[in-house]
Automatic annotation (TrEMBL):
Pfam families: 6PGD (PF00393), NAD_binding_2 (PF03446). InterPro entries: 6-PGluconate_DH-like_C_sf, 6DGDH_YqeC, 6PGD_dom2, 6PGDH_C, 6PGDH_NADP-bd, 6PGdom_BS, NAD(P)-bd_dom_sf, Pgluconate_DH. The keyword Amino-acid biosynthesis does not apply. The keyword Nucleus does not apply. GO terms for molecular function: NADP binding; phosphogluconate dehydrogenase (decarboxylating) activity. PANTHER family: 6-PHOSPHOGLUCONATE DEHYDROGENASE. Keywords: Gluconate utilization, Oxidoreductase. It comes from Amycolatopsis antarctica. Belongs to the 6-phosphogluconate dehydrogenase family. Residues 163-296 form the 6-phosphogluconate dehydrogenase C-terminal domain. This is 6-phosphogluconate dehydrogenase (Decarboxylating). The lineage of its organism: Bacteria, Bacillati, Actinomycetota, Actinomycetes, Pseudonocardiales.
């Protein structure tokens, strides 16, 4: 069994620690919240791990991740391996990898999908980096991914940066799928032909070409709130959709569905709409993302 340091015990990091421990791996977790951390500092985390070490970073993308990687470069040793499993922009990965390489420390970027359901169901993993580093971390990856054929939930996408690039495109596709369900929900509500909208949507779960996990999550949301009246139609975007659209522009690839879905989120921050309430409910269901209640 492997030993792993895990930095960042938020919604996903905390559940990943529990899933790894359930599989028999030793996990030492560090978080700014001392109540859920196993150690009090990065130095303590490094000291608690046998070498050569593997440290997985699950902190917010951007400066927080860049600073954490830089800090690890000061306390880890040659031969250690850092994995960024957050939602970093793929262009940050080469910078992080090059920085650690000067110290003889390996680097992998991993796009992780599974949200708050990953502890129970497992996580799909998209990995970028050297094949030797990927193979070294494979016991960790195998414990995190769902049971079954590895190829169905794990991919070595390419060199450093490829994992986060793949996850970025995955999230862009997700934007479009959620928007399609949301617009269908609004039309069913608006037409005054269907008298039981939740029942119709639930009836799509088996035997139809639109059956999917997202549809299942929409059914769960409607069981909790049949008209989604408890939510405002306000939907944030975490960055990946914008980045995907920028890549589409840079590569001259038409992406009308993605662009429409992203712009619909911008529109959601204006007057309330039932389609945006559906998107908000879906994001809360699969990822525990923040929603705004009507009272707020």
């Amino acid at each position: 069994m492997a030993s792993l340091g895990l930095i960042g015990l938020g919604k996903m990091g905390f559940n990943m620690r529990e899933r790894l421990r359930a599989a028999g791996h030793e996990v030492v977790g560090y978080d700014r919240n001392a109540e859920i951390a196993d150690v009090g500092s990065l130095a303590d985390l490094v000291a608690a791990l046998p070498g050569p070490r593997i440290v997985w970073v699950m902190v917010p993308a951007g400066e927080a991740t860049r600073q954490t990687v830089a800090d690890l470069g000061e306390v880890l040793a040659e031969g250690d391996l850092v994995i960024d499993g957050g939602n970093s922009r793929y262009t940050d990965d080469k910078i992080n990898g090059d920085l650690l390489a000067t110290k003889g420390i390996g680097y992998l970027d991993v796009g992780v999908s599974g949200g708050v359901w990953g502890k129970e169901n497992g996580y799909a993993l998209m990995v970028g980096g050297a094949a030797a580093d990927v193979e070294r971390a494979m016991p960790i990856f195998d414990a995190l991914r769902p049971e079954g054929e590895r190829e169905e939930s794990f991919s070595h996408a390419g060199d450093v940066g490829a994992g986060h690039y793949a996850k970025m495109i995955h999230n862009g596709i997700e934007y479009g799928l959620m928007q399609a369900f949301a617009e269908g929900f609004e039309l069913l509500e608006a037409a005054n032909v269907v008298t039981d909208v939740p029942a119709v949507i639930k009836g799509w779960q088996r035997g139809t070409v639109v059956r999917s996990w997202l549809l299942d999550l929409l059914v769960l949301a409607l069981e909790e709130d049949p008209e989604l009246d408890d939510l405002e139609g306000w939907v944030e975007d975490s960055g990946e959709g914008r980045w995907t659209l920028e890549e589409a522009i840079d590569n001259a690839v038409p992406a009308p569905v993605l662009s429409a879905a992203l712009f619909a989120r911008f529109a959601s921050r204006r007057p309330n709409s039932s389609s945006m309430r559906a998107v908000a409910a879906l994001r809360n269901q699969f990822g525990g993302h923040a929603v705004k209640k009507v009272a707020e």
